[in-house]
Design goal:
The chain is of the alpha/beta class and 160 residues long. It is globular and about 40 Å long. The protein contains 4 helices and 12 strands, in the order αβββαββαβαββββββ. Pfam families: RraA-like. It catalyses: oxaloacetate + H(+) = pyruvate + CO2; 4-hydroxy-4-methyl-2-oxoglutarate = 2 pyruvate. InterPro entries: RraA, RraA/RraA-like, RraA/RraA-like_sf.
Length: 160
Amino acid sequence: MTSSFSTADLVDEHGDKLRVCDTQFRQFGSHRSFSGPVRTVSCYEDNGLVRELLNTPGEGHVLVVDGGGSLHTALTGDVIAGAAVDNGWAGLVINGAVRDSAVLAGLAIGIKALGTNPRKSTKSGVGTVDAAVGFGGIMFHPGDLLYADDDGVVLLPPQS
C-alpha cells in the first residue's frame, strides 16, 4: 500500500479498533513508513522459513516475524532482505535481530527489528507460517492491515 499515513493520525481516527504494538523497534530499511496486509512467521533463531517466504511474490505484504525477541542471532540480513525487495514485499517487522544494517539502510523496503547481531541463524526451517503471532501486547493475524512509521506499528482488522 502506498498511501500517505501517520500512525498517530490512525490512532486518532480509529480509536479502540486499532491495535498498537508496544514493542520499541529500531528502523533499518530506507522506507521509514510502510504498510500492507500481514503475513506471519514464527521461528526462534532459525530463518529458514523467513528466507523461503521472502523468495516468493510478496504482493505488497508485510512479513511479521516473531523470533521470540531473541537478539542472539539475526533473522534477516542483506541477502534475504534484498530478496524481499526483489519480490515486492512492502516491509518486515521482526521481533528479533537483523544483520548487515549498513546495507539494509539502502534497501527500498521498510524494516523494523529489535536490534542487530552479526551472528547467522540456523536454517533448518523450524517454525510456522501464517499463524497468529503475539508480541508487544497485541496479536498479529494474517490479513490484518499493518501500518508502520517512526511512531510505531499499528494494526487494523482486514477490511470487509
